[in-house]
Amino acid sequence: MNARAKSWLFIIFFFSVIISLVLTLPVRQILRYVAIPETVEVQGLEGSFIKARISRIGYQGHQLSDVEIELMPSCILHLSVCYQVRSDDFQLNATIDANLLSQSFSIKESYIELDENILKSIPQLIVKPKGVFTLFAEDITFQQNSISNITLKLDWLNAGIDGEEQILGNYEASVTTQESGL
User: Fold this and answer.
1) pLDDT at 86 over 80
2) 8-34 as b/e, with b when 16 or more CB fall inside 10 Å?
3) What is the pLDDT of residues 53-76, one digit of tens each?
4) 40-47: strand order across its sheet
5) Cα of 115 vs its chain's centroid, Å
6) Buried b (16+ CB within 10 A) or exposed e, 111-145
7) What pLDDT digit, counting tens, does each position of 103-136 carry?
8) Can you tell me the distance from the alpha carbon of 171 to that of 155, in angstroms, rounded to the nearest whole number?
């Protein structure tokens, strides 16, 4: 083996070791460099850059338990870092994409089934709803600290009002961005 082949072999080995060290780095070490708002509580964080688990995450009194986060390697080809986020607590399944080139952050092809108690806790609602609320996010893109694109659908199945026997039916609402706004 000549000197040039040995140099290439060393370079490939060196970069392989560096990449494997970064990918297996404990997520707690990475989190030290991420500014999490004080209103967000994170407990029981464990795992690595590739796959992590959060025992409990909370925001303004609402909690989500047993959250699994997994890196999607297919996004690396278009210089993005994508994670699949899942939780059985609220039937959450989200794809989060941070594009390094356009400096945008997206939530794509995601859904969350909301507990009716969350909506009952909103003080601005005159009546307290009941039923199954499912939010489908085809695309929510944040760019330059604002939402640049949004395509959402909200399904309200077995819609009703708390304390009433009658079911009002099933409802669907869609929200999309257009040139003039939402």
Assistant:
1) yes
2) eeeeeeeeeeeeeeeeeeebeeeeeee
3) 989 888 777 788 888 988 888 777
4) 40-47, 51-59, 62-72, 80-87, 92-99, 104-114, 129-143, 146-161, 169-176
5) 18
6) bbebebeebeeeeeeeeebbbebebebbbbbbeee
7) 778 888 888 887 777 777 777 878 888 888 888 9
8) 6
Residue 153 is predicted with a pLDDT of 92
Cα angle 108, 34, 112; round to 5? 30
Determine the Cα–Cα distance for residues 95 and 14; give it in Å rounded to an integer: 32
pTM: 0.67
Q: Which residue has the tokens 């996010």?
A: 137
What's the CA gap between 71 and 179, in Å, rounded? Answer: 34
d(CA 62, CA 111): 17
CA–CA separation, 133 and 113 (whole Å) = 6
Tokens standing for 98? 């941070």
For the purposes of burial, counting CB atoms within 10 Å of the CB of 69, is it exposed (0-12), middle (13-18) or buried (19 or more)?
A: buried
Token code pair at residue 107: 């939530």
Type of residue numbered 86:
R
The structure tokens listed for 97 are 């994409």
Distance, in Å, from the CA atom of 25 to the CA atom of 19, rounded to the nearest integer, reads: 10
